Amino acid sequence: MSHQNFDSVPSAPFAQAPAKRRPFYKKKRFVIPAGVLLLGIVMGSCSSGGKPVADSSPIASAAASAAPAEAAAQPAAAPPSAAPAPAAPAAPAVGTPFAVKMKNGDVARITIVSAVRTDAVTTTAFATPPKNGTYLLLDVLWETESGKTSSNPLYFSAKDAGGRKADLNMFADNQLGSGDVLPGDKSRGFIAFDVAPGAATVIISDPLLQEAARIQIPG
To answer: Which of 81, 119, 159, 197 to pair with 70, CA 20 to 30 A apart?
Structure first.
């Protein structure tokens, strides 16, 4: 009877115990993505938390954008209006007194009371018909406004509408006298010109026969 040699028979290898599995949260392929995700969440929460409330509010944004539009829509303030220029003195007119500077600070106050057209200016022997068709007869009131003035028919001259000088008739009845007119006194009389019909210009001169004023006589 033979004996079996159990020593020479290789023993059957023991079954290898299965390796232990690591928890899934410790594996690199899960840990890295999870860390990245967590970092993103933290950064997002920080950025959203630090953002001003006014920027994230749609009402505040609308109000902010509307403010420049309202400012642009408002009209610009009007510049202060310039002070009105002083009105120019009215031109002398028939029936209205006007001042005439007669040199050395003396001022006369003259009124052409009336201006009429007539065929004769005197009833004396010196009466002559007008050469230009009619006489322009002025009723003149002379006063002194300041200083001392002298009235004189020679201070008056006239031109017709065409600029032609008229002739002064020195024989008109009740002609304006020559002489000093003291303050408070008056001198009144007529001055006659042989001038063509129509509008005329009467010029008043100072004692040096320089023009001091003029008045338009309607035709």
So the answer is: 81
Confirm if 163 and 149 have CB atoms less than 8 A apart.
no
Helix (H) or strand (E) holding 200: strand 200-205
Count the neighbouring beta carbons within 10 Å of the beta carbon of residue 34.
11
Distances (CA, A) of 101 to 67, 105, 147, 149, 208: 65, 7, 10, 9, 12
Q: Does 150 have pLDDT greater than 50?
A: yes
Q: Please classify residue 172 by burial: count the beta carbons closer than 10 Å to its beta carbon, then call 0-12 exposed, 13-18 middle and 19+ buried.
A: buried
Higher pLDDT, 37 or 189: 189
The first and second tokens of residue 68, run together, are 């420049």
Which residue in 133, 140, 143 sits closest to 154, CA to CA? 140
Backbone angles phi, psi at 131, to 5 degrees: -80, -25
User: pLDDT at position 171, please?
Assistant: 94
Token pair listed for 115: 């201006």
CB-based burial, 130-141: b 16+ in 10 Å, e otherwise: beeebbbbbbbb
pLDDT-above-90 percentage for the chain: 55
pTM of the model: 0.61
97 is written with which tokens? Answer: 């007194």
